[in-house]
Amino acid sequence: MRTALAGLFTMLILAGSVSAQTNTVFIHGKSGSNHNGTGTTDVNNYWGTSTSSVSGSKIFIGYDGTTDPRTYGTSRAQTNITTGLTNNCKGTKTCKIVCHSAGCYAIEFWLANLGGTAASKGFNITKVTALAAASGGSELASALNGATFGFAGNAMDKALIVSTARAAFNHNNTGGVTIYHVPGYKGMIGASAILPGEDDYAVAYHSSCGYNKAGGLNKCQPSLTQSEGIWPFNSNVTYTQYSGHLRAPSLTATGLYKDHGEIKADGHR
């Protein structure tokens, strides 16, 4: 009898390990296309071949890439994130999330407004890998808005205005999930003249590294103090990463020499 019970116990353990599933969930950023969907298909091919660096089961959460990433409704980010994570990150299913650009804005907003930790709400989310995160906004969106007196740009562009993005939610509340940042510094003439510090031609390090305020930064690390202003009126300014935000451990503080699109292939970090 004891032997039979031991065998049954072993079978139950093995059955549990077999039924458990780990998914990598991809959440895209700004786009001129509608990628609406929550399944195994990358609707309208936002990610291309860049997800090949990640092995295992893959889920794509898509929405209309011209809409505000904070909004709910048909083809909207917040509704589809809720649906996608509920279907694929609960019970025996565990998820790691990979977001790109404004997709990080979307998932960070969702986590901050979850009403508790992800675990307490039944979600099994191990981490978020934030590729070129735009959750701190982009000076390009701010410049477009200012130059056109608010008349140009779609809802996504307006959400990405630096002051809007930074005031949009409590960036220190990550729902108990660590956000690991992957920034790039392969800029572009023109865009880099507008973006402060290092940038990937779309977002600057203050956003892609999860810093607590905007500024011209060239390192991605927990804290950075630098002298700013014209001598003799200069002063030291300290920037820190928001709580729950870290640089991806496989990177150095300098980040990656990749642009905003190229960095999509680093979801394995």
* Helix-and-strand structural type: alpha/beta
What is the beta-strand fraction? 15-25%
The biggest sheet, with number of strands, parallel, antiparallel or mixed sense and barrel status, is: 7 strands, mixed
Can you tell me the overall shape? globular
> Number of helical segments?
8
| Mean model confidence by pLDDT | 94
Helices and strands, in N-to-C order? HEEEHEHEHHHEHHEEE
Rg over CA atoms, rounded to whole Å, is 20 Å
Low-confidence stretches: 1-18
**Structure summary, number of beta strands:** 9
Helical content (DSSP H or I, runs of 4+): 25-40%
Topology:
Layout lengths: L1 H18 L1 E7 L6 E6 L17 E8 L12 H12 L4 E8 L1 H11 L12 E7 L7 H9 L7 H5 L2 H6 L11 E4 L8 H4 L10 H4 L14 E6 L6 E6 L4 E3 L22
Parallel strand pairs: 1-3, 1-4, 4-5, 5-6, 6-9
Antiparallel strand pairs: 2-3, 7-8
Helix pairs in contact: 2-3
